[in-house]
Design brief:
Among the domains are: about 5-105, Serine-tRNA synthetase, tRNA binding domain (Helix Hairpins, Orthogonal Bundle), CATH 1.10.287.40; about 190-264, no CATH class. Helix content is about 50%, strand content about 5%. It has helices at about 5-10, 10-20, 25-65, 70-105, 145-150, 155-160, 170-190, 205-210, 235-240, and strands at about 155, 170, 195, 200-205, 220-225, 230, 255. Helix 3 runs antiparallel to helix 4 (about 70-105). The radius of gyration is 29 Å and the shape is elongated.
């Protein structure tokens, strides 16, 4: 998530950068800045009210010591009023903070400066490419026909036991899946990554931490009784290992690898 200080100090840059994602962020950015100003001014008023209440409390103590009970009672009434005001201001500040957070969730991270504008794959910037893309012959069969021909993936069985999008891997298909997982994990660990096996269910905070929520609300599998969400990839729990953690520059880069075996 973008920091509110960055949005305040780089308002136009944020709007321009998000336009590359074909997002008109001007209104949301304006609302975010206004909500932050409201929250900050309310917090200042709250701090001043609490400071005045504390000052009066000290004065009341001195008056009571000096036998000035009548004057102390007057200040006690004022202190009670200040406490009521501080309660209202605290609730108002919390409401502004909650609304601000929900608005900021709507702003995605900014694309890198080298990312070009465009809507088609042809307009993408090719940063790295390895190997040659094969040119298939005229009668090449698509994968869904090949896996049926060799009986290594059964889509119908998957529909029967779970639903569309959940194939059953059989025989050499299942072995291939297992081999590919091991292959890629081994390649990554050989390259210096640390392997981690993470939960396939995450809590709501983790969903917000990697941006699945609130954007994908209603599209993720949700376990209502425990309020847990099924992850789309291992990236979600692995990234959330560092949620709410401030890393020092000398700790970077951190290289983790893991997998989640779900159909795409």
């Amino acid at each position: 998530m973008l920091q509110i200080s960055y949005i305040r100090e780089n308002k136009e840059q944020v709007i321009t950068a998000l336009a590359k994602k074909y997002m008109d962020a001007k209104q949301i950015v304006e609302e975010v800045i206004q909500l932050d100003e409201n929250r900050r001014s309310t917090q200042v008023a709250l701090d001043n009210t609490l400071a005045e209440a504390n000052k009066l409390s000290s004065a009341i103590g001195e008056m009571m010591k000096n036998g000035e009970k009548a004057k102390a009672e007057i200040l006690k009434l004022k202190t009670a009023q200040l406490k009521e005001t501080s309660k209202e201001l605290s609730e108002k500040s919390d409401a502004f903070a909650a609304e601000l957070l929900q608005k900021m969730y709507l702003l995605p991270n900014l694309p890198a400066e080298i990312v070009p504008e465009g809507k088609t794959p042809e307009e993408n910037l090719n940063v790295f490419q390895a190997g040659e893309i094969p040119v298939l012959h005229e009668n090449a069969q698509p994968h869904w026909e090949l896996v049926k021909k060799y009986d290594i993936i059964d889509f119908e069985l998957g529909v029967k036991i779970a639903g569309a999008g959940f194939p059953v891997y059989k025989g050499k298909g299942a072995k291939l899946q297992r081999a590919l997982i091991s292959y890629f994990l081994d390649k990554n660990t050989e390259a210096g990554y640390q392997e981690v096996q993470v939960p396939h269910l995450v809590n709501e905070a983790s969903g917000y931490g990697t941006g699945q929520l609130p954007d994908k609300e209603g599209q993720m599998y949700h376990v209502g009784i425990d309020d847990l969400y099924l992850i789309p990839t291992a990236e979600v729990p692995v990234t959330n290992l560092f949620r709410d953690v401030i890393l020092q520059e000398n700790e970077l880069p951190i290289l983790y690898t893991g997998y989640a075996m779900f159909p795409s």
